[in-house]
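Researcher: Going back to the complex we discussed earlier. I've cleaned up the inputs and rechecked each line, so this should be the final set. Can you rerun the prediction on the complete assembly and write out the structure?
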Amino acid sequence: MYNIALLGAGRIGQVHAANIAAHPLSRLSIVVDPQEGIARQLAEAYGASVRSLEDALSSSDIDAIVIASATSTHADLIERGIRAGKAVFCEKPVDLSISRVNATLEAIKGQENRLFVAFNRRFDPAVAELKRRLDAGVIGDLELVTVVSKDPGALPIDYIKVSGGMFRDMTIHDFDMARFILGEEPVRVTALASTLTDPAIKAEGDIDTASVTLQTASGKIAVITNSRRASFGYDQRVEAHGSLGTLRTENVPKTMLVQEREDGVTREKPLFFFLERYAESYAEEWKEFVRVLKGEVAPAPSGEDGRKALLLAEAAYQSLETGRTIAL
Amino acid sequence: MYNIALLGAGRIGQVHAANIAAHPLSRLSIVVDPQEGIARQLAEAYGASVRSLEDALSSSDIDAIVIASATSTHADLIERGIRAGKAVFCEKPVDLSISRVNATLEAIKGQENRLFVAFNRRFDPAVAELKRRLDAGVIGDLELVTVVSKDPGALPIDYIKVSGGMFRDMTIHDFDMARFILGEEPVRVTALASTLTDPAIKAEGDIDTASVTLQTASGKIAVITNSRRASFGYDQRVEAHGSLGTLRTENVPKTMLVQEREDGVTREKPLFFFLERYAESYAEEWKEFVRVLKGEVAPAPSGEDGRKALLLAEAAYQSLETGRTIAL
Amino acid sequence: MYNIALLGAGRIGQVHAANIAAHPLSRLSIVVDPQEGIARQLAEAYGASVRSLEDALSSSDIDAIVIASATSTHADLIERGIRAGKAVFCEKPVDLSISRVNATLEAIKGQENRLFVAFNRRFDPAVAELKRRLDAGVIGDLELVTVVSKDPGALPIDYIKVSGGMFRDMTIHDFDMARFILGEEPVRVTALASTLTDPAIKAEGDIDTASVTLQTASGKIAVITNSRRASFGYDQRVEAHGSLGTLRTENVPKTMLVQEREDGVTREKPLFFFLERYAESYAEEWKEFVRVLKGEVAPAPSGEDGRKALLLAEAAYQSLETGRTIAL
Amino acid sequence: MYNIALLGAGRIGQVHAANIAAHPLSRLSIVVDPQEGIARQLAEAYGASVRSLEDALSSSDIDAIVIASATSTHADLIERGIRAGKAVFCEKPVDLSISRVNATLEAIKGQENRLFVAFNRRFDPAVAELKRRLDAGVIGDLELVTVVSKDPGALPIDYIKVSGGMFRDMTIHDFDMARFILGEEPVRVTALASTLTDPAIKAEGDIDTASVTLQTASGKIAVITNSRRASFGYDQRVEAHGSLGTLRTENVPKTMLVQEREDGVTREKPLFFFLERYAESYAEEWKEFVRVLKGEVAPAPSGEDGRKALLLAEAAYQSLETGRTIAL
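Model: Rerun complete. Updated structure for the full complex:
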């Protein structure tokens, strides 16, 4: 049984808490959160105790920490957790600054095997099955990857302000997805982007509509298409095209109900909210982390995966600024 | 907080235990099962205690019992539970014998509001939404209901032997579904049936392939089609046809993955096993039972719903035997 | 090159004329129709001439007649055509009266191989492919057939009056389809029916909503579900369930356009009108008839197929009247 | 009735011949083709005569010419046709060289309204309906366009050699589609491309796998994804994403047959060959050209549309060569 300290009792922390508790080999022992009320409520629901960060890190019976606090705290907490001998499950991203990410990875050198960076979408059952079949040769040699990723609707502008920009905040998932499916490192990046959904986003200097194209040394191409607003739900589709065919994931409708009337044949919309859409992914990624704790597998995605996704975001911004295809 | 005693710690009992524990207003307090090992294991997982049936019924802090034991015990346990002042959540069916069902309903007369008979499929999110739209007039006046219900594969012959026959064991769900969607009582029943999937079923005098048609006094028609073996998964579809259109539920695929190759465009199969296919239904039906406990709603399905579904099964058998349309 | 005389230049006659003209081995030579205007218009479009029935039958260079005139004329025209040495392509039905059908088949005894009865749905590309795969063993042993057949909307009451009743006019197609898919003769028939869509239909003593169930000697079951009004389009689906799986045809949407908005994911409705929905079937059935003319295949559907479908309609009516399962 | 001279009696010429003949307002009068055999066969089938190009152009009763000959002849034939006072329906492209296209458009200055350039995909019923709804505001303001276009399989290398390269030969359709849907001119183009499907294509210096991204002055983005080999059929999908939702076209399956077995739920593959997939588009584009002949509408796509699509191809090549986003 692995004892877990959860750092951050907000929305995503609550998701992880439930998965920690539901897993037969892990137990939520400690909840750390400056907001005492929500910390206490979460701790009580799972028989955990509310403690300080220092207590959590120095407690000898804690096996791992889960970092679900604000993005700006991630890098520091990773370093402190690893230094304290804990395994670390960190919500994406490691940091919004590539130099800070580099510094953190440098700081934990030799201990990379204790850091798991939680890009949840790799664990979506459809994506995981796509990857299994791809690796098994079901569609032959991979040639083209397409990632469509659109948020259901405009995020609050206060979120946008601290998000690091769309490529670092949202497209980062798609960069990880592209790398995961490609199985090769992109060496060229080109991007075009606009701000179309909300003048407030424009006022922040951010973008909301974009396409980024990646190419690997062997010539495989990945195309990412983004919007901050799909309006009908969370539009999340991945497509792998190979010499023998295609594997692709469709959106997940709320139910399989169909309505047929004079006004059309209407199905239910895709699940709207990311916590609902990726509920299974969060549970599966926790299972994977427990496998890491057991020493059965190396952490994947790793800190290096986190760094490489951020490098692609940096390159995409550079392409926008210079009007050039960026070589990596 | 409602304290629950669970009678029966087998497969379906475990499903109910998880839902009881997950609901913020209910707690699994007591597990009763003659097989001490599985009772203890289940009780421990949820902080409950293993007790005798007598203890459970006489314990003043138990609000409700959940009957998840063998079918032959249901009627007796309903009567004892009601007599002990408990609310009763009973797995379908009340009993396989209509006279026993009648006796039980007679015995609890005046207390019907404390008995909930768990026909889980009404609580499938797609079916529930279909019913909501139907009641809201989305497809106008209802005219035709179609229920396709096929088990994924042959059940063990030892199960078949004690099942009461396909109409009482399996089609009973479809009779309840037809009544639920129709919103009117059938007054005519005609059936044709065969035994095609397994000679062992034939040897037991049971059927495995059938169609039953129902008609209400106002002329609405419901058609049920059954097989004990769909081979590709659990084939569970409902269709309501009205004056303005149709509402229908499609099977639930394992994931939304699509594979396109020279050998065809292939999607994933429907979920195979009923516990997996109807996981959400079981959770939703427990929520409904908690509403019953809170006095917010009358129990539906009720004991009377259990009785009426069984009467339709009896009528279907009578139709097979006499070659007649049976009037109810 | 086969020279064809078309008897009847109405809606369905025009469909056949186009297919006759488009086939490299057939030519529309003569058009016969008491309404001279439409006969002339059709003849001119294809370089044919307008002639009397007598001329058509006595003309030595006419190889075959196509009967596309009013139902009441079919039986007589079949007999005259065969007597005149022509091959006969007859729109369904042979006649609405079973005794008249028997008399006609008696009259052409020994020449059955020259009569093709045009049940067009067998030639629908999806149905034809379903049948090919079924015969190739793709789903193992056939056990259950489901035919859903709903007209898009109410026919004019003047049509209903002379239609012979829904089972003889509309369900007759489904009886043929069931026999075609079953590959065995039904020996039991049971039916329930209502009149729900239009009081005018009720006033005519006709039905508009029904389910008919058939069973063969080996136990295969076929279920037909009908309505005179689907409102959203022509609802035409066939399903064959066997020991290894299922083959089923879905409705044909107008285009493959999908619209995703807050009000749902909406696809286009099924094709509405039978001439549009079955355009390919009509072309394919003409190709089949040319194969009959070339002596490559025996006519299928044959006159006997026409008779057997009508017998099933008669049995369905008898079941309604007697409240019994009818043995054939 | 418009009399038409068809220049080129090959595969695509035969498609146009059938549509010309089927239209009530047009007649195939003359067929011109150096290969006398196929010219004669086609002419006979439709009651036309085989004549020389000079005869066709000087014949006063010819209203329009259809250019379906080799690409290298298009520009010259357009100029001669217009000079002879004919309306011109020209298969795409006008020419593979932008300077030649410019020269031709210069040569016919003032007569642009007589030249129709046949980009057939605009006339696909699903695409046309998408455009109608987009223009009607069904998805609000357009933001993103996605065009997936993959040939079913490798073309003969002899074709590749004279094709002008993938962007000019195949992507040209997608450039036209993107412009058609965008309703605005792209002002920026970036591209990445590879050669992955066939070493013979590489040996020719051509590409077979690519992504091209376009951006308009208002910020709308269009993403084109291409491959020369989809293996499972002709992969042709268009998606328009706007402020209120999405309109997208799915591939067209051969039939609506579904097979459900233990090995998956399998539907039929997309139509494989472009003549089959776009049969309706060719018929619709002919109807549009007849509207042009009647003076009801201006030709669209026009010669200028042909030129602008080619300019986008040129820009895409330039982006590949320079590693820059190209400004137009």
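Model: Worth noting: Chain B has a mean pLDDT of 97.
Researcher: Good, that matches what I expected from the previous run.
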